[in-house]
From TrEMBL:
This is Probable pyruvate, phosphate dikinase regulatory protein, chloroplastic. Pfam families: Kinase-PPPase (PF03618). The keyword Nucleotide-binding applies. Residues 15-25 have a biased composition (Pro residues). Residues 1-14 have a biased composition (Polar residues). Coiled coil: none annotated. It comes from Cucurbita moschata. Residues 88-102 have a biased composition (Basic and acidic residues). InterPro entries: Kinase-pyrophosphorylase, PPDK_reg.
Length: 402
């Protein structure tokens, strides 16, 4: 298997950058320079390029983090050598140093590696897949040793555009991740990356093949939402629309007489994320009502008459809640008296204790700790418990905090 080989050399002085002559390229090739060194002439080199905005941002992050930027009196230059596909397959790590720009030429930094994301649709699947994977490397991203930049190319539906993207990826030494429903496009991407030695990963293809084998049906080969792949409006679609309309009308304790019609009821003190969580669940097709717990205000009796297996309590760390409430009070322009009542620690703790007593009196309601959780994480816990109850699955003790 042919591959591109990158090697880096450091010269004691700033080299010249002669314009190389283009050579004939194989299919899916790019116009990257094949630098060859000989005894008669010095090596031809290419100066790595980077985004000036990214460079300024990286430098600012380093300064804010307290890192001392190195300044070299004897500036060094980095040279990259990309051999042709016929060259040996030994590979050196691609970690070029990039000199600062916009007045920062005396600052050297490590250039972040690139990930190209290619999709024949909106790119939602590939973008979220890459984001989830990068979440495993937060310990070294940006501020440490492995900065990464991502680039999304959506709506790629012809081979010519795909070829240009692969060419650019090869120039930057980028990794290519793609979700291409058309088998021909997916195979073209695979072969192009193999030809030029680019690391790549097909997210959609392997899973589609497994599902097709399991169902015994061939895939359509069309991206979601593409012309010819639009399905008629189904009952599921109308259920989701109905759920969203219901949830909006039931927000913040409105129309308590309809609590028995809700699939899920959320109860908690102010600023525990009831509304955004309700809307998120509604988009998945669940009718959600949320009821605020306010100290000194009696809760609607319909809350206690509703099916207790549909009610979920939300709680949060008092320090975090105070921080959120202070920001909220400031944005709403509360006066000093209202602000102190709403966001002072004593009041926050008393209100959380008041809600805790209500939860204790209704042990069937699961109490979910939302501190530090994203909306998606809290929603996943609620849906797991909801379906466990609906299908009579075994589950932990109901009164446990989740």
């Amino acid at each position: 298997m042919a591959s591109s080989t990158f090697s880096w050399s450091i010269t004691p002085h700033t080299p010249s950058y002669p314009t190389p002559k283009p050579r004939n390229q194989p299919p899916f090739s790019n116009s990257i320079i094949n630098n060859q060194s000989s005894s008669e002439s010095g090596p031809q080199v290419r100066k790595p390029k980077g985004s000036p905005q990214l460079n300024r941002w990286s430098r600012a992050r380093a300064l804010r983090s307290g890192h001392k930027l190195e300044r070299h009196s004897n500036r060094t230059a980095q040279a990259v050598e990309l051999r042709s596909p016929d060259s040996p397959t030994d590979r050196a790590p691609l970690e070029p140093a990039l000199k600062g720009r916009d007045g920062d030429d005396d600052v050297e930094r490590i250039v972040g590696k690139s990930i190209y994301m290619v999709s024949d649709g909106t790119g939602w699947t590939v973008e979220h897949s890459v984001t989830a994977a990068l979440g495993q490397f937060t310990h070294c991203l940006v501020d440490r040793v492995c900065p990464v930049s991502t680039h999304l190319f959506s709506g790629v539906d012809d081979v010519e555009r795909l070829r240009e993207i692969v060419k650019q990826a090869a120039k930057e030494g980028a990794m290519l991740v793609y979700t291409l429903a058309d088998p021909f496009m997916a195979e073209s991407a695979k072969q192009a990356c193999k030809l030029w030695g680019i690391q790549s990963n097909d997210i959609l293809g392997p899973l589609t093949e497994v599902v097709a084998s399991h169902l015994g049906v061939s895939p359509s080969g069309l991206p979601r939402g593409a012309f010819g792949n639009n399905l008629p409006l189904t009952d599921e679609y109308f259920r989701r629309i109905e759920a969203i309309e219901f949830t909006i009308k039931q927000d913040d304790g409105a129309l308590p007489q309809n609590l028995n019609k809700a699939d899920i009821v959320l109860a908690g003190v102010s600023r525990t994320g009831k509304t955004p969580l309700s809307i998120y669940l509604a988009q998945k097709g669940y009718k959600v009502a949320n009821v605020p717990i306010v100290m000194g205000i009696k809760l609607p009796k319909n809350l206690f008459e509703a099916d207790p297996e549909k009610v979920f309590g939300l709680t949060i760390n008092p320090i975090v809640l105070q921080t959120i409430r202070r920001a909220r009070a400031k944005s709403l322009g509360f006066c000093d008296e209202m602000r102190s009542t709403y966001s002072e620690m004593d009041f926050v703790r008393r209100e959380l204790d008041f809600a805790g007593k209500i939860f204790a009196q209704n042990p069937t309601w699961p109490v979910i700790e939302v501190t530090g959780k994203a909306i998606e994480e809290t929603a996943a816990v609620i849906l797991r418990l909801y379906h466990d109850r609906k299908h009579k699955c075994s589950m932990p003790r109901i009164s446990k905090r989740y």
